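2024-03-11 09:14:02 INFO receiving multi-entity request
2024-03-11 09:14:02 INFO entity count = two
2024-03-11 09:14:03 INFO echoing inputs for audit
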Amino acid sequence: DGGITQSPKYLFRKEGQNVTLSCEQNLNHDAMYWYRQDPGQGLRLIYYSQIVNDFQKGDIAEGYSVSREKKESFPLTVTSAQKNPTAFYLCASSITTGADEQYFGPGTRLTVT
Amino acid sequence: KNQVEQSPQSLIILEGKNCTLQCNYTVSPFSNLRWYKQDTGRGPVSLTIMTFSENTKSNGRYTATLDADTKQSSLHITASQLSDSASYICVVIGNAGNNRKLIWGLGTSLAVNP
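2024-03-11 09:21:47 INFO inference complete, emitting structure
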């Protein structure tokens, strides 16, 4: 898991509520990423950030929002607009975006009922 | 369409045996290819990174090969251990100028039984 922490490990919410997942890194990496992992599917990119105060939509950004106010932190908010929020969420970081190796956190399993 | 296909989908072997996992891709242009190991309920951990010019790279009991002509890679695990039970994911990084995109495979689920 390197120097990336995600909290909490498990999260339960009622449908219609927004929820924020935490991701912190102490690797001094510029780039950070959020992925979603569902059974039978590869990792899908939600949002990524190349540098502080900048972020870009990934392949499945609808229903999610992010912020990057500090280099170390890249929280993900799952809004009520996300149709199927129950999933395993993974945060990653790399020195820069591009071909650099990504280091992953331990993940947060979100269950919405 | 850029794709990464892994086979087999799942595999069961006995402790101490060897196995080989396959990854075929259609990503072009190609930058590099990575193999990750993901334990259940954890984040992926990098095993190897292969660039276009590399044919073979080893990391302990893990050996990855790459044939850029046929767009195939394999991950060979020698003398398997119970701790090798995990999902092994192949990731191909496309090289489209300044915009590099990661294409993730679905992974091979490996179970090593005593």
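2024-03-11 09:21:48 INFO post-check: Chain A has no helices and eleven strands.
2024-03-11 09:21:48 INFO post-check: The mean pLDDT of chain A is 93.
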